[in-house]
Design brief:
By secondary structure, the chain is α/β, with parallel strands linked by helices. It contains 9 helices and 15 strands.
Length: 288
């Protein structure tokens, strides 16, 4: 059994922690609002924007904080200041491994090209800049670290695109790829990497976590619209300027899969089908 600290334990952190507890590990959850921490975790209430002191040592640490609002100050606090305070607290009792959840939005490619962990990043906007600043902090510490850059997360509680399609408000630009990962696969990927570290597997410092099938957004919207019985939705031809401003890339998950990880939902069809089935069952329950 490993002792695990999940710092910035929001939705992803709580879901991850429950998986790890079921596997027999001891989980401590650190977040500002202690009331939101599940009962099966040890609670550590703290605001990560403030200096932190840890009274215990941990085998593995996950930093899963999120910004909350799309504002520079929030991104700085979540991905730079909070991580810096955590690293300072761990300096005297370093874990075996630290995992940092980041985003594939740091890749700025816009021509639909394939992107791997070795592809260049772009700090052309504040969100990517703050994420990259946080990632850079990990290169300065003398402990094993792994960054996991997630694509667009969707799943229970993350049904924004479904909601847009149902309301008829969804629209898309032709030829623009999106890269997604179901939250269940995202959480299992983190648990999988920790298990590998426990087994002495030499983890890389960076993994891209997306499913097997980068797909045009218009294709996904049309697929959802057909299953939700929504009339045909608006497609737009992107201007050259909009193509340059909008990220458009196909992300490779081959490095993650090379570790032996397998996806429960390898494409958007299987992932959204499971969500839509849950929606259907929920409506049936309300009628009975």
């Amino acid at each position: 059994m490993a002792k695990v600290l999940i710092a910035g334990c929001g939705d992803i952190g709580c879901r991850l922690g429950k998986v790890l507890v079921k596997q027999g590990h001891s989980v401590t959850a650190l977040r500002r609002n202690a009331e939101a921490i599940p009962s099966e975790f040890t609670t550590l209430a703290h605001d990560l924007t403030q200096p932190l002191t840890l009274s215990e040592s941990y085998d593995y640490v996950f930093y899963t904080a999120s910004a909350g609002k799309y504002q520079d100050a929030n991104y700085y606090q979540a991905y730079v200041l909070g991580l810096k305070n955590l690293l300072n607290a761990l300096s005297n009792q370093p874990p075996k491994h630290l995992f940092f959840t980041s985003s594939t939005s740091v890749f700025g490619q816009s021509e639909g090209e394939w992107v791997t962990e070795d592809s260049p990043t772009s700090d052309s906007n504040f969100s990517a800049r703050r994420l990259l600043q946080g990632e850079a902090l990990l290169n300065e510490v003398a402990l094993p670290t792994t960054i996991v850059r997630f694509g667009g997360l969707y799943g229970p509680g993350r049904t924004h695109l479904i909601d847009l399609v149902k309301s008829g408000k969804a629209h898309c630009m032709e030829g623009i790829y999106s890269n997604r990962i179901h939250t269940e696969d995202a959480i299992n990927a983190l648990a999988h990497l920790m298990q590998l570290a426990e087994q002495g597997y030499p983890l890389d410092s960076l993994y891209i976590a997306v499913d097997d099938q980068p797909s045009p957004t218009c294709e996904i919207i049309d697929w959802l619209a057909e299953r939700l019985n929504v009339d045909e939705l608006e497609h737009q031809e992107p201007t050259e300027n909009s193509r340059q401003l909008r990220s458009n890339k196909r992300l490779s998950n081959q490095k993650l899969k090379s570790t032996g990880f397998t996806f429960k939902y390898p494409n958007y069809q299987s992932g959204y089908k499971a969500i839509l089935q849950t929606f259907s069952l929920s409506r049936t329950d309300k009628k009975t």
